[in-house]
Amino acid sequence: MARGCLQGVKYLMFAFNLLFWLGGCGVLGVGIWLAATQGNFATLSSSFPSLSAANLLIVTGTFVMAIGFVGCIGALKENKCLLLTFFVLLLLVLLLEATIAVLFFAYTDKIDRYAQEDLKKGLHLYGTPGNVGLTNAWSIIQTDFRCCGVSNYTDWFEVYNATRVPDSCCLEFSDSCGLHAPGTWWKAPCYETVKAWLQENLLAVGVFGLCTALVQILGLTFAMTMYCQVVKADTYCA
């Protein structure tokens, strides 16, 4: 009876981890594609230049694949050490996510101030050699969100030491339109505009976070159940 339960949990856990591993492959693939086609896309921070969308996806995808691989092998081999390793790694990830979420909500104001200061420093790297990712990211954000600068369009005056903005700030794009009068530029601040957009989509973000947590809890349940079944089966055989 114990052996039959073990086999059932074994195949369920293997299927779960196979999907987990394939998901990691997908995330890694998107990260590599972004790195190859867009450079360091979405690198907005001057303090953390490596914190790009491509790098984050590559690291996340690799880590998810590694955890999924350990879970798959642990299930197939019915190896207690690998099952326990999978459980511990997944539990650490879940605890880390929970800690980050709590700290984010507890220090929202401080994070807001730091983020705006850091983004303003990053503006000075716009259009400079080796910062194609940051330049592309600001151009896309200002064009798509119809905004200009971090707090307002005058943020760019300090960058250029002149009354001008990037062409992506223009109401109607044309070459060197950033040299025209302020009446031809977007007035909305990018930080507040993007923040408002995120708040409007907070429900979707919350649902995604909840689904992610449930998947991780399901993985923990499978791992611990199978670990206990392997222990029981070993005891029974002994």
Automatic annotation (TrEMBL):
Pfam family, one: Tetraspanin
BP terms from Gene Ontology: protein-containing complex assembly
Gene Ontology CC terms, in alphabetical order: plasma membrane; vesicle
CDD domains listed in its UniProt record: NET-5_like_LEL
Bilayer topology: Multi-pass membrane protein
Transmembrane regions listed in the UniProt entry: 12-36, 56-76, 83-107, 202-223
GO molecular function: antigen binding; integrin binding
Localization per record: Membrane
Disulfide cysteine pairs (residue numbers): C148-C169
PROSITE patterns, alphabetized: PROKAR_LIPOPROTEIN, TM4_1
Keywords linked to the UniProt accession: Disulfide bond, Glycoprotein, Membrane, Transmembrane, Transmembrane helix
UniProt xrefs under PANTHER family: TETRASPANIN, TETRASPANIN-4
Similarity-based family: Belongs to the tetraspanin (TM4SF) family.
Protein's UniProt name: Tetraspanin
